[in-house]
Design brief:
185 residues; alpha+beta
């Protein structure tokens, strides 16, 4: 059973969105050497649902968050509703919502946290997903963001190692990888 802590004040949600926009505008070119080419043939309809973050590169908009997961839901016009959740150090739930605009025939979406500012959307590239759509490796276009995702809040070491090797093969430096804790399952 999922434990859903109480909703945070609205200003916390706005703060998370503002941090995401700040990151998009000023910090996203941290790592430009990695290959962030999306995996071709990714079926976004199979990608829908809940994904738990197992590890990430820390970014201002996720700083200090644990118990992070994201839900992807189909919405009108073939777009995808992206809802990000996490718990801060004070055990307050943080969330940010966005719209994903799928790029046809690729493992990529353009994600906009402020839909009416769609020109500020950022690439969301699925670099690797296993055949059962249970584990995924995701980055943005510049390689400054990297997420290890799973359908479960824990992952067997062999499956995690497959994603780690794929990230290394693509040129990611994993020395600053943050391993996400999951206290609520």
């Amino acid at each position: 059973t999922d434990i859903e802590p109480s909703r945070p004040p609205r200003h916390l949600n706005h703060t998370m969105i503002l941090k995401a926009l700040f990151y998009y505008l000023f910090c996203r070119d941290r790592q430009q050497q990695a290959d962030t080419t999306p995996a071709l043939g990714t079926d976004l309809s199979r990608y829908l649902g809940r994904w738990y973050e197992l590890a990430r590169f820390d970014t201002p908009f996720e700083e200090g968050l644990e118990d992070v997961y994201t839900e992807y839901r189909a919405c009108e016009g073939g777009n995808i509703r992206v809802s990000n959740y996490g718990m801060d150090a004070d055990h307050r739930r943080r969330e940010a919502h966005a719209i994903g605009y799928p790029v046809p025939r690729s493992g990529q979406m353009k994600v906009a946290f402020v839909p009416f500012l769609r020109f500020l959307s950022t690439p969301y590239n699925i670099l690797h997903v296993d055949s059962n759509y249970t584990n995924a490796l995701v980055s943005n276009g510049s390689g400054s963001c990297l997420w290890f995702l799973s359908r479960r809040p824990t992952l067997d070491p062999d499956s995690f190692d497959v994603m780690r090797r794929e990230a290394l093969r693509r040129g990611f430096d994993l020395s600053d990888l943050h391993y996400t804790r999951h206290r609520y399952k």
